Amino acid sequence: MNETPIFINVDNGHQLHINTLGSKEGYPILFIHGGPGYGFFKQDSRFFNPDKHFVILYDQRGCGQSTPYASVEHNTTQDLINDIDTILDHFDLSEVCLFGGSWGSTLALLYAMKSPDRVKRMVLRGIFSAAHDTIDIFDEPNLPEQIVIARKRALDLVPMDHQDDPIGYYLSKMRDGTKKEQVKYAFELELYGAVLNFPSIPIDRLELDIYQRDYFPHAILLAHYAHNKFFIEDQFIWNNLKLIEGIPIDIIHGSHDQLCPVDNAYRLHEEMINSKLHILEAGHSALDPVINQKLKEVMSSLG
User: Fold this and answer.
1) Who's near 109: CB < 8 A, 6+ residues apart?
2) Among this protein's residues, is 115 annotated catalytic?
3) What is the pTM of this model?
4) What is the residue range of 218's domain?
5) Could you confirm whether 250 is annotated as catalytic?
6) Inside any domain, residue 1
């Protein structure tokens, strides 16, 4: 990636951290990270070839190096969609390939529905529709034992009179609790998400990994979005696919994904007339070797 990142102002005091890879003459790609709340990482550049791709990587509102840090104010799905237009305008791009995984796939689909003329194709992994019957991370059936254990640990921190809305309780503690409570509830939510993402890795190893990074933005933004049903009308994506059905799209999804049901990928493929479906023996994460390799293969064919 380029040595010097840039920052662009959007609205209501938010400033987005952006970096690029390759030259502007290359095939234009916008990398939309997951979460909500993760930010992009240097290793995300591994999917792209700087000799033929021009890639924009950016931290969404409140994420990574964007400011204000971990802010949930003026931070909604509609804000994030509008920010994409601001980014493309900044780089004077009339159209772009959208590359997104998990929450990034949601934003890519929503942006394409808003501005289909600016989307030349999409490469999406771990499809998340934000349909309301799929967004409760504490209400998943038929889970592996380690996830069941982690879920009990997370829910044990929620008083009985808040058990009907555990994510709302976590959000309240991260927003209004003492500093100790903010850190505690952010850590526990991050740990539960990590177990969902990597159910075969021992919990103590996942804890060590979380301790070594700044997990607060992802935890509070995930809770903020989940508590507000991701600021998306129920079934919105499924009800509006006709708007984008002709856009070329590669769909990559792990058959053992515990976060985003693989049925999402099959349904998207069925309704998108110009789509290619890649179902892999893998989980949710782009770090899974099989998913990682498939993403690289798809991107190497573009540009």
Assistant:
1) 122, 124, 237, 244
2) no
3) 0.95
4) 135-231
5) no
6) no
